[in-house]
């Protein structure tokens, strides 16, 4: 990602400044305050199996997590193969869009518009 550090899974998806900043934007967007784990599998578990949330809400968080990982991977490839760079603010918008589209495709009962999802994701997940 242009940071001159040996690319590992952990570095790419968690430690790289761009991905770390993106995760901070994701946490802020969904209204969570977390301590980021050092391993990718613990990171996934932390977001997808959050205590005291319904299984439905946990599946929404899984979609958000996968959308974030997808955006990081696509950004990495665009940086390497197309020599482009995108800001973390643009990347969080992509996470919001992909997660919304994937949820609309997966959950027939997801009746929210993109603006609702973009602005207030927790009520869209049934978390009040």
Mean pLDDT: 87
Tell me the radius of gyration.
15 Å
How would you classify the helix and strand content by structural class? mainly alpha
Strand content: under 5%
Number of separate helices? 7
Order of helices and strands: HHHHHHH
Helix content: 55-70%
Shape: globular
Low-confidence stretches: none
* Major sheet details: none
How many distinct domains?
A: 1
How many E-type strands?
0
Distance between the termini: 37 Å
Task: Describe the overall structure.
This protein is an all-alpha fold and 128 residues long. 68% of the residues lie in helices and 0% in strands. It is built from seven helices and no strands. Helix 1 crosses helix 2 (17-30). The termini are far apart.
Mind sketching the topology for me?
Layout: H1 9-15, H2 17-30, H3 40-48, H4 55-82, H5 88-106, H6 114-119, H7 121-124
Feature tags:
128 residues; mainly alpha
Task: Give a brief description.
By secondary structure, this protein is mainly alpha-helical. 68% of the residues lie in helices and 0% in strands.
């Amino acid at each position: 990602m242009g940071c001159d550090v040996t690319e590992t899974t952990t570095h790419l998806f968690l430690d790289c400044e761009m991905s770390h900043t993106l995760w901070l934007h994701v946490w802020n967007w969904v209204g969570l305050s977390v301590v980021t784990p050092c391993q990718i599998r613990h990171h996934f578990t932390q977001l997808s199996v959050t205590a005291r949330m319904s299984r439905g809400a946990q599946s929404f968080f899984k979609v958000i997590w996968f959308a974030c990982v997808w955006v990081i991977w696509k950004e990495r490839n665009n940086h390497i193969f197309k020599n482009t760079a995108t800001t973390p603010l643009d990347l969080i918008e992509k996470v919001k869009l992909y997660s919304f589209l994937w949820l609309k495709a997966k959950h027939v009962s997801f009746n929210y518009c993109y603006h609702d999802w973009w602005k207030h994701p927790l009520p869209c997940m049934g978390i009040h």
